[in-house]
Amino acid sequence: VHYLLLYDYVENAVERRAPYREEHLRLARGAHERGDLVMAGAFADPVDGAAFVFQGDDGSAAESFVQSDPYVANGIVTAWRIRPWTVVVHE
Question: Cα-flanking dihedrals φ and ψ of residue 25, to 5°?
Fold first, then answer.
């Protein structure tokens, strides 16, 4: 089962996220190495949010990511939501 984690960002997110970016990316890479995170990235033009695709039996990996993410803790993320995602076409 897949889960989408969707973030909304503050204005000027690119500049404001800079002090927290390495820790955020370390967290994402760790989730990917464990097999929890399939792919992730920020929206472009404008950079006003991001999407993450998690996999697992439930949304707990995505929830854990949110609770540990410095972007959330430091106000770069203004809102987030986790949605179960029924994938019908994939690699």
Answer: -65, -35
Residue 27, SS3? helix
Q: What's the DSSP call for residue 48?
A: -
Sign of the torsion angle spanned by Cα atoms 5, 11, 15, 18: negative
Distance CA 78, CA 52 (A): 16
pLDDT digits (tens, 9 = 90+) for 26-53: 999 999 999 999 999 999 999 999 999 9
Closest-CA residue to 43 (of 1, 88, 6): 6
What global pTM score does this model have?
0.95
Kindly state the greatest CA–CA separation across the chain.
Answer: 38
